[in-house]
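We emphasize that the prediction below concerns an isolated chain of 196 residues; any contacts that depend on oligomerization or on bound cofactors are therefore not represented. The input was used exactly as deposited, without trimming of termini.
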Amino acid sequence: MNALLETHPHLLPALEDAVRVYDGKTSRHSVRVGHLADLLGDAINLGFADRISLRWAGLLHDLGKISVSESILAKTGPLTPDEWREVQRHPAVGSDILRNVSPHLGPIADGVRAHHEWFDGSGYPDGLADEVIPLIGRIVAVVDVFDSLTHRRAYRDHHYSRGAALELLHEEAGSHFDPALVAAFTDLVTAGALGD
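Result of the prediction step, given as a token string:
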């Protein structure tokens, strides 16, 4: 993958731009998720190449939302079953886009596809569980939800404090999230690594 990015340095930023043009709020969220994922990857001593893939998976985790109707993304009320099915397609769509660009983007595509898998196997799109879920996807899952909770969203008119968001992550450790990653992320937040 590094060779691909060296020969085509604008490739992934172009995909990031596609998300920004389609939905600026999703883009800002994705930038924060990429940063948080990188911090967590560093904290667990992920290797340099894996951290590059991780950061890009965080930045592009919602790439597949370009296939979701804008009216659904902006909806303030509950989604209908059909709308929810459309939203649930976005991890697979984003992963497919990346794989179609280049097979060298496989680790990023795997992380994007897996970021809504749950540690207990009840997530989507593949129902993976435990360590079968790619590590990059498990990391992005933790920081994606943390960032979503601590910022306003179209479907929620308030946001959680960092402490309340961490409590929710701990409540769902072992079911939604990898418990070891929740613990490592909590250490990062409490140590002040996220700043003010």
